[in-house]
Amino acid sequence: MNEKLTSDEKITLLRLARQSIELAVRHLPIPTIDLNQFPAQLQKDGAAFVTLTKEGELRGCIGALAPYQPLAQDVIEHAIAAALEDYRFPPVQEDELSQISIEISRLTAPLLLEYSTEDQLLDHLRPNVDGVILRDGFRRATFLPQVWEKIPDKGTFLANLCYKMGASPNLWRKKHLDILTYQVEDFHE
Predict the structure, then answer these.
(1) Domain count, the chain
(2) What proportion of the chain, given as a percentage, has pLDDT over 70?
(3) Are residues 86 and 135 in the same domain?
(4) Which of 65, 102, 129, 140 is the most buried (most CB within 10 A)?
(5) What pLDDT, on a 0 to 100 scale, did the predictor assign at position 182?
(6) Phi and psi (nearest 5°) for 80?
(7) What is the tens place of the pLDDT at every residue in 129-169?
(8) Taking the model in full, what pTM does it have?
């Protein structure tokens, strides 16, 4: 993520997310976008998470950890997936659309966090700055930096991330896991 997005680019991405969700929830076709109609920053490959909330509570969140398609297309794809495919929630219904708020988090490339001991790991984590990815073999899970607001304790944060990964909450204390960190540029409606 070389440059920050402009206000207009953020508004465009939020509009794309909103329109895509509304069409998908109503089972209408999603139009193909012409990337040439968008600013260069939105045409470049980018990774984003789209988070949906309803009355301040999580209603869906899906995204990519690494870029593999243009940012505009990535936001459309993950907005629809957050609304309809987050296994933790039933699909968003049409009567909920006016109550759904959208937040987009554009990710930097994840970097491996080097650590030897539990204390070093805890010292290296930066609450409210770093998103964290845990990897254990084929299993992995992530929390965006915004999750620190709800789980400010580093040990509890890692325990919850282990649980999300499908592992024992204290796995991070018992085993040296691959831990990566990234930052986000987040914006919302």
Answers:
(1) 2
(2) 99
(3) no
(4) 102
(5) 96
(6) -65, -45
(7) 999 999 999 999 999 999 999 999 999 999 999 999 999 99
(8) 0.90
